[in-house]
Design brief:
Blueprint lengths: L20 H13 L4 H7 L3 H4 L1 E4 L2 E4 L7 H13 L2 H10 L25 E2 L2 E2 L1 H20 L12 E5 L6 H9 L9 E5 L4 H8 L7 E6 L6 H17 L7 H4 E5 L2 H7 L6 E3 L16 H7 L1 H20 L6 H14 L5 E6 L7 H13 L17 E3 L11 H6 L6 E6 L9 H18 L3 H6 L7 H4 L7 E6 L4 H22 L10 H15 L10 H15 L2
Parallel strand pairs: 5-6, 5-7, 7-8, 8-9, 10-11, 10-12, 12-13
Antiparallel strand pairs: 1-2, 2-13, 3-4
This protein binds 6-O-phosphono-beta-D-fructofuranose.
The site of 6-O-phosphono-beta-D-fructofuranose has 14 residues, from loops.
Length: 556
Amino acid sequence: MPASGTKVAKGNAAKPLTQLKAWKALKAQYKKVGAMHLRDLFAADPKRGKEMTVEAEGLFFDYSKNRVTDKTIELLIELAQESGLQSRIEAMFRGDKINVTEGRAVLHVALRAPKGARILVDGQNVVPEVHAVLDRMAAFCNRVRSGEWRGHTGKRIRNVINIGIGGSDLGPVMAYEALKHYSDRNLTFRFVSNVDDTDFAEAVHGLDPAETLFIVSSKTFTTLETITNAQSARAWLVKGFGGDEKAVAKHFVAVSTNADGVGKFGIDTANMFGFWDWVGGRYSMDSAIGLATMLAIGPENFRAMLDGFYQMDEHFRTAPFERNLPVLLGLMGLWNTDFLGAQTVAVLPYEQYLKRFPAYLQQLTMESNGKHVTIAGAEVDYETGPIYWGEPGTNGQHSFYQLIHQGTRLIPCDFIAFGHSLNPIGRHHDMLLANVFAQSEALAFGKTKKQVKAEGTPEWLAPHRVFEGNRPSNTILAERLTPEVLGKLVALYEHSVFTQGTIWQINSFDQWGVELGKVLAQRIIPELESKEEPKLKHDSSTNNLIRRYRKLKRGK
Ligand code: F6P
């Protein structure tokens, strides 16, 4: 781990992406290989399926079913080099303020750095602080899990409710679901994110306040949804204790960077777990935001997860690009997006515990790379972040896969599967894995008209039964889903987002696009709540909708 300075890395004065030598060469390459079929690429090289793979840190990555040749890979790697990826990686790990629009370092990698590491932000080594918070989290989790921490009336905590949204929710929910197998089943975990009252009502349904602990998770502690839900939680709890405000102390803890806000809300800052402005919300599941995760799986498993992150960080920082998993994953996505014109990526885990992984990746990828100007402020003239979505297999196969196989759009897929089930039952796992391999095979190779006709299909039906194939996919395989492997998997995607953002010359670490809606909502709230008919100054549609809602509310 390199020691650091705290340079502010202003927009690189790099050449525009489309002027780079490797980009131009890739455009020319696309003309040659873009139309080639995966059937031909595989036929031309029997070793392709073995050679276009990388194994690192226990993850096996097969990218052979992408529409690329060795030359394409070589050029993509040149593009990464020409884009200064290595020096950007070093700048991130060193703690340079690469998030220039917010003037911040980007140091989620410090959250999983080992105790002895040194990473400086504004001249201060942040690693000891990280470990101090981890130790406090561990002590707290041990107290709750052992029953030493009791509720206001002395009852043991049985229910934990995380209140947060975006990065303060998606990471904790995803990790809880992913690692449920390792969790303490005597504790019930629920997650409230939406300001929709139903989300809160359902989360507390049937629970005894005397056995319930709320974790209010918010980096800023100003987010409308979270603060509103936290206030409702407080009211629900106090009511449950017959109006006794003192109960709050034993039933609320906070995770935030904003100690003032936490104090003002009424949570003792002794029960607050901090993190830092250099941790982006969508990169925070391994900070104190992971308190619910640690409560569920215990400190030891949480540390194993951090170790998994760290191993992938080190791999990303040190491995040559041609054997670097996050770099290759990022480059495949970039090729599919910018050269093949794909608009989306389907993430398809063949592991039920990863059911929230696609939702988690949506924020990680789309909030990071959903940008239309470069760091220097220039409009891009190429596509940036694609749309991420997905569902676990095999369920997706009986739903949307039809469009992936035979629709008019090109949808690259990331398949994720494991060598072992965590709950082996008879032949289930072989069947599951047979499906994942069958899907990527069918997508790549399809079924020709000749094959269809040879099966005796009548001429009129044949076009419906032809599979064009040539649909690209990646397959990621690991031994089994453990906390450590989850850490590696998340870090793999984090760094592939970084790889792409660097080449696209965008800032993957701000999210100004979500601000306008927030500001407008604040303006509209009083217009919905005022007793008098408000003077509306929106466009005619918004005015009309507001009036219609006010009428609905009044029951007229
Ligand atoms: O609105 C987007 C966002 O700022 C995310 O980036 C963040 O993860 C989420 O809101 C929640 O923010 P906070 O943790 O400050 O409540």
